[in-house]
């Protein structure tokens, strides 16, 4: 995981006698080597359970390039998988026990497979056990099959990069292989969604799980959340001298809270007021027709964000279809900026750290910048010249230091392959 030097460097004294704070040094780092990470979780499994696993599977985290908080309104999104992954070493057992361990947490789970039901499991194990529970519809004669699973999550926690989806989808790949279920990738996506919403009790629209399973290296994933149809969109920034800088603001991030649920409810009220099933079916002109009886400007602004964000995804996709990222970098950057401004002003899901990171990136020369993920903490992305990534990161770190925020962490995102078997 990316580390940044202490942004609160000791002050020096300039010629004027005024304190001068040293410019924070930053480090841009990448994910652990995939092969080495697979070997590590395999060794951890053997140490914990006393025998070798049947295999190792993994799934990536994601960043959403554009199309935020519209997945649960049948919207359009453009996520990409990142190189940070969650790894799962697993094996079938001759018992009916499901045993779960993690390299990142001391919590362990041992439960009879037949006892899996919503409410029976808490914490991170719920996201794994929930997948097995959700996949029961595809299991014939193996509903009480036991298994051992060791998790090693390399997706930064709390950064808004979908560590939970990576966890679910790595488990789904392992369970599919261990039980030879014959499920399709889309069925595993739906099982992961069900695990998070119905078993773990979190709210998700399915963008994260789709990106984790269905993404292709060197591409973004155009996702239609109405029917879960997808297509790969070329997004090879490296070959064009560009980069996507991720800033983990280290502001606490959580989806399982009242704020996320409230935004979803607001958008549903807006759709009902407009007389449409979801805001995917509305357009900007309809914003003026919201019933005055609502007397709720908040709902109007929630609708404005969703409707305009869906249009921004369409515009972003059209630009990529018309030429390369380099050909249209200014227009693409403008769309990223407009997305963040809408999330800040109309959807109100940003926090000071997110806004500070975005503002500093823009001022330092980024083509465009926005928060990514559910908000209320987490990460931002900035489309930058590859040779300017460190400069932009340094500017963000300096802005955080000036505001007294915890030093952010930085890494460059590579559009990576979706879930699969590693060993």
What does the model show?
The protein is of the alpha+beta class and 423 residues long. The chain folds into 2 domains: 32-234 and 417-421, Ribosomal Protein S5, domain 2 (2-Layer Sandwich), CATH 3.30.230; 238-413, GHMP kinase, C-terminal domain (Alpha-Beta Plaits, 2-Layer Sandwich). Helix content is 36%, strand content 22%. The protein has 10 helices and 15 strands. It has helices at residues 34-49, 125-134, 163-179, 185-199, 207-214, 258-274, 297-322, 329-345, 352-363, 389-403; strands at 11-13, 19-21, 28-29, 55-66, 76-93, 97-102, 109-112, 146-153, 219-224, 229-234, 242-248, 368-372, 379-385, 409-413, 420-421. The strands form 3 sheets. Strands 4, 5, 6, 7, 8, 9, 10 and 15 form an 8-stranded mixed β-sheet that branches. The protein has a 5-stranded mixed β-sheet with strand order 3-14-11-13-12. The longest helix is centred in the last third of the chain and has 26 residues, at 297-322. It is globular. The protein starts with 10 loop residues before the first strand and ends with a strand.
